[in-house]
Design brief:
heterodimer, A: 114 residues, mainly beta, four-stranded antiparallel sheet, B: 118 residues, six-stranded mixed sheet
């Protein structure tokens, strides 16, 4: 069964550095998402992406964040200047665009900011 | 705006007991979709079940069953004859689907930690 893949599984970065998290959504899916889960807390929506542009974003997704689909397969989340509070698990998800279908999640990237 | 509340922070049961996880949701949309996801200790999010707002028929799938009641805005999930491998965090989530200004995002509850003891 096709799956969403995320790399790396764990990223350790110094505060203030830029970090790029990578995702390969399922190939025929049209909608892509990033979610964040701070340790021990709930999963929070960051941004959705459709037709090569951001379709919706949360208040968490400030100017430090950006997303890109640089080619036909990758979907990236960039954090420009990381802060300690950016430490979290970041999940990528995709959906074919059918409300009756669930979002398919990757296994997540654990981001640790030192 | 949508909101999902899981009032049970932690539940502890002994293997083979039945356990019900509660979920209450809020939305102004008349069409919406409810989900349960499981997050085992390894951290990934595993889709379990989905329900549409226009279908209140409750179903059973193996050891899983769910009770969807629009009148009380609840979408409860039951595991029958629980097993140690069911130990995980369970999240209830809501989406208003696709169309208009909706792009399928999920709003999650806070999660319920389920521990099944042998």
């Amino acid at each position: 069964e096709p799956e969403v893949t995320q790399t790396p599984s764990h990223q350790v970065t110094q505060m203030g550095q830029e970090v790029i998290l990578r995702c390969v959504p399922i190939s025929n899916h049209l909608y892509f998402y990033w979610y964040r889960q701070i340790l021990g807390q709930k999963v929070e929506f960051l941004v959705s992406f459709y037709n090569n542009e951001i379709s919706e974003k949360s208040e968490i997704f400030d100017d430090q964040f950006s997303v890109e689909r640089p080619d036909g397969s990758n979907f990236t989340l960039k954090i420009r200047s990381t802060k300690l509070e950016d430490s979290a698990m970041y999940f990528c998800a995709s959906n074919v665009g059918n409300s009756n279908q669930p979002q398919h999640f990757g296994d997540g990237t654990r981001l640790s900011i030192l | 705006a949508q909101k999902v509340t899981q009032a049970q922070t932690e539940i502890s049961v002994v293997e083979k007991e039945d356990v019900t996880l509660d979920c209450v949701y809020e939305t102004r949309d008349t069409t919406y979709y409810l989900f349960w996801y499981k997050q085992p200790p390894s951290g990934e999010l595993v889709f379990l079940i989905r329900r549409n707002s226009f279908d209140e028929q409750n179903e059973i799938s193996g050891r899983y069953s769910w009770n969807f009641q629009k009148s009380t805005s609840s979408f409860n999930f039951t595991i029958t004859a629980s097993q140690v491998v069911d130990s995980a965090v369970y999240f209830c989530a809501l989406s208003v689907g696709f169309g208009g200004t909706s792009y399928g995002k999920l709003t999650f509850g806070q999660g319920t930690i389920l521990t099944v003891h042998p």
